[in-house]
Design a protein that fits this description.
Rossmann fold, 10 strands, alpha/beta, elongated, Beta Polymerase, domain 2
């Protein structure tokens, strides 16, 4: 069997194509059955907002195109010709490399993000429950998981914020040390402030106050974050209560002034306040930066932090790519050795059978033997058999471990020659 992968991702297809090919969770079991009907001995489907991929163990005579046809089954209005330009196809070591890179988030839109590993593990569990994970995919996927873990532990690929909203959390941690029990005010209800609030809550912030000119949007966010709605015209009176203020109002001028913040800091008895201005034009008066115990960052500050960290991750990714290359070579050697194992076992069994037949034939001529003599003859004949087998077995293993593609063909020729010379039975299908 050969390992094959077919897919599209954010790198090769726009969202309009990806969304038409995406699988809902409840559709995947039937799709896996369809893959098997098209020649996949084993199959796994990974479907996220950024990629749709099928990984399979195929019979040698089944083309990888069969996976694409399987993906399109039941999707009216989509043809192979229409989507083929967006698809990539990998086999054997290149498929392994791709899976290792996906699991390690090296192929993600944001390098280092942890979500994709969990999604791949869920896809593996679903395929296993469906009975479409066998020895090939099990070996490749479990190694992919361990490669991702190794990259996380040996590099700093997952560290530091690489999005504007998460950069705000990183800065807040620097200011407060911990975000446990911190209170947050959202002023305006834009998507970026929503994202920052979500990250702050995950980091330990416990209360959200929401002030927005549109009551419906304020109510929506209040439900989302289990927050408290504050009338927009009176948020200034509540400013002293919050540790973190996120401003993303569409107001044309400053809605939080230096005087507001100065009064709030005094009321807080000089406890620090972190202010995030994500609005364009800005919502918070720049003079706030000059107020002691007030820490103001605007969207440019956050983007600079995110971009700097993203560049650092890209440099770290080069270390991770080296680990992927090493692990692909290791797994490829292991799988190729497993492929030749039936030939090695067959050769050992054949030579042992010949040894026993010859011993049995000549046992009568040897007369009565003491226990020591019988043991000596047994050891002598086993030694001869092992000596004969050593050369062919060593050469088979050496070729199985070779990494050059050219060696793969020579390996097949060698195995065929060994099987012919020693008249070995074909156990590879057993």
């Amino acid at each position: 069997m050969k390992l094959a992968l077919a897919g599209i991702s954010h790198r090769t297809a726009p969202v309009e194509v990806r969304e038409r090919l995406a699988f809902r969770a409840e559709e995947i079991p039937a799709a896996l059955v369809e893959m098997q009907a098209r020649g996949a001995k084993e199959a796994l489907i990974l479907s996220t907002c950024n990629r749709v991929e099928v990984t399979a163990a195929l019979a040698e005579n089944v083309p990888a195109d069969a996976l694409l046809e399987g993906i399109l089954t039941g999707r009216d209005g989509l043809s192979v010709e229409e989507v083929r330009p967006h698809f990539y196809f990998f086999e054997e070591s290149e498929a392994m490399r791709h899976l290792f890179r996906v699991a390690s988030s090296l192929d993600s839109m944001i390098v280092g993000e942890p979500q994709i590993l969990g999604q791949l593990k869920e896809a593996y569990a679903q395929a296993r429950d469906q009975g479409t994970i066998g020895s090939v995919l099990d070996a490749v996927l479990t190694r992919a998981f361990s490669v991702a873990k190794r990259i996380r532990s040996e590099t700093e690929i997952g560290q530091n914020a690489v999005s504007v909203s998460y950069a705000a959390v990183e800065l807040a941690r620097e200011i407060f040390g911990t975000l446990q029990k911190k209170r947050v005010l959202i002023l305006g209800a834009g998507k970026m402030s929503e994202g920052a609030a979500r990250h702050l809550l995950r980091a330990g912030a416990t209360e959200i106050l929401i002030a927005n000119r549109t009551p419906e949007r304020a109510a929506e966010l209040a439900r989302l974050f289990r927050g408290e709605i504050v009338p927009y015209e009176s948020f200034a009176q509540r400013l002293a209560e919050v540790d973190i203020a996120i401003a993303s109002s569409a107001a044309p001028g400053y809605v939080i002034t230096g005087e507001m913040v100065r009064r709030a800091i005094e009321a807080r008895k000089n406890q620090p306040m972190f202010l995030i201005d994500i609005a364009v034009p800005r919502n918070i008066e720049p003079s706030v930066n000059g107020i002691e115990h007030a820490f103001l960052y605007d969207i440019d500050d956050l983007e600079r932090i995110a971009n700097r960290n993203l560049e650092a991750r890209r440099e770290i990714a080069q270390q991770a790519e080296s680990i992927v290359t090493e692990e692909v070579a290791r797994l490829e050697a292991r799988l190729r050795e497993r492929e030749v194992l039936p030939t090695i076992v067959s050769l050992q069994e054949q030579l042992e059978e010949i040894r026993r037949e010859v011993l049995e034939r000549y046992r009568g001529r040897l007369g009565s033997l003491t226990a020591e003599q019988a043991q000596a003859i047994e050891a002598l004949t086993r030694g001869i058999v092992n000596k004969i087998a050593h050369g062919p077995i060593s050469e088979i293993r050496r070729h199985a471990a070779a990494q050059a593609v050219a060696d793969a063909g020579r390996e097949g020729e060698l195995i065929s020659a060994v099987r012919r010379i020693f008249h070995l039975r074909d156990r590879r299908g057993e």
